[in-house]
Amino acid sequence: MISFLPTAEFAAALDEQDALRDFRQRFHLPLAPDGQPSVYLCGNSLGLMPKAARAAVEAEFESWETQGVEGHFHGTSPWMHYHESLTDSAARLVGAKPVEVVVMNNLTTNLHLLLVSFYQPNTTRYKVLMEGGAFPSDQYALESQVRLHGLAPDEAIVELVPRPGEHTLRTEDIEAAIQELGESLAVVILGGVNYYTGQAFDMEAITKAGHAVGANVGFDLAHAAGNLEMHLHDWDVDFACWCSYKYLNSGPGGTSGVFVHERFANRPDLLRLAGWWGHDPADRFQMKKGFRPMTGAAGWQLSNAQIFPMAIHRAALAIVDEAGGMAALRKKSEKLTAYLEFMVRQLELPREVLEIITPHDPAARGCQLSMLVHKNGRALFDYLAGAGIIADWREPNVIRLAPVPLYNSFSDVQRVGEVLARWASV
Ligand SMILES: *Cc1c(COP(=O)(O)O)cnc(C)c1O
């Protein structure tokens, strides 16, 4: 148990001891109206720009400018194999083997591609279990997947909701729902971290429960990648995908990552939507009939690589690796978020005013704290913005604050507490 103090001096001392403190210099911090760097707590929505991003993209412009099509084969990083240069870092990020990971496309696209393979309902096994109030894109993706198979979303999709009076789901309730659905359950698809509440799910326990009834289990890791330390391979997760522009700082609309467990690596029979980039590279350019998928997650690729977003992603992943990977980031992250929670709680605001709905247990959350503001939430959000704090507002009344270990400091968090105290006193 760490005991915190709410003072600027205490926060500065924590920053002094922070082994990752210099990584803040690797990012461009947006400036507040007063010309000072903002307190940027919005990395859960769009991570900040790594200073290395511009040169990484510039290098590919250079190849294109000077070599044209030859850039596929020449230059420091020939485009033909560019995506492969991301695989090892992406695998480390989620606790996977390289064969289990590929970087391609965008998140919702990848979710659809994976569901084509991992949601193949039949007359008895056709149900989907997901969290109630999942991110809209996930809801729409699942509804349309269900319709694709001629089923009705109302009948096929089962949504988990918290118990009355609670804001987050209990693992035991998720497990019970899985058991109850039994052999009607085709797939479980949850966020690794719920975007709204900030709750991190027990992916290992949920996977185990899903497998026990014969269902496939997948996770949308949009809010988990770059936030949690994960072991997807060991947890035996079937499939997962994530975006790179939130905690992975790879730029707006950036590319996405995919995980497919090794046990599906050599399953050419597993139905998928196919494209030439997923075809065996040995004869990809023979332009012959007959799709033969590559081994592993790479066999789900459709198109040749998007070099520009991947260039940014590679630079951004290199920072994560340099910082010591997710274990190191997570160590700081837990402390940073605990400090934020302390700063909010020591204000002793009544629950009718402001309530943290994110779990208190570090194992059940990432870096984000979601505050339910019962009155004048929007006004508080604007007040924070006026004080140079960039947070995130979600309808109807939640403010999300995400201090991230790569570029946020304990002093950032202390400043949030001070501004909240000022707001509470007026
Ligand atoms: C951010 C987010 C998305 C966004 O999807 P894109 O395809 O990248 O636009 C989807 N699902 C979840 C859970 C998210 O958090």
TrEMBL record:
UniProt keyword terms in alphabetical order: Hydrolase, Pyridine nucleotide biosynthesis, Pyridoxal phosphate
One Pfam family recorded for the sequence: KYNU_C
Superkingdom per UniProt: Bacteria
Modified residues (N6-(pyridoxal phosphate)lysine): K246
Pathway, per record: Cofactor biosynthesis; NAD(+) biosynthesis; quinolinate from L-kynurenine: step 2/3; Amino-acid degradation; L-kynurenine degradation; L-alanine and anthranilate from L-kynurenine: step 1/1
Quaternary structure (record): Homodimer.
Protein name: Kynureninase
Organism: Hymenobacter nitidus
Taxonomic placement: Bacteria, Pseudomonadati, Bacteroidota, Cytophagia, Cytophagales
